[in-house]
Fold this protein.
Amino acid sequence: MESLDKLSKSILFEFSSHGKTNYSCSLTSSTLFSADTTIAQLAVKLNSNEDNVRQAISFLTDLGYLTPFRISHSSAGKITLGVRLSHKGLHYRELCKLEKQKLLLKSVYLPILVSVVTTLTVLALQWLWPLLTRWLSSFHG
């Protein structure tokens, strides 16, 4: 999972804190898309500026946390009017928690388990070795 900067996390938190799965932010002043908030309002709420918020929204869209709402325009092609949370963005806290658990398993629990198994194997071999040598010597004796 990708690391997110403070502003990106704040945007995801803001989008998910309203109890709506379809909370949206308008990127343009078009009347074609009725959104819950605008870039300007979001920037004020997050104590940031509009350019930084736009860049963070673009970053989150590229990573799949936000889904763009686009329309096709005959002369301009596809125009993005706004964004809303994707499934990944809606559940980013849960996904982060699962990723941390996986990392903890790989970096802490697995090495401890390997160490315990190795130690027990060495101790068992040290205990068995004299018995094996006596047993083998009984065939030559």
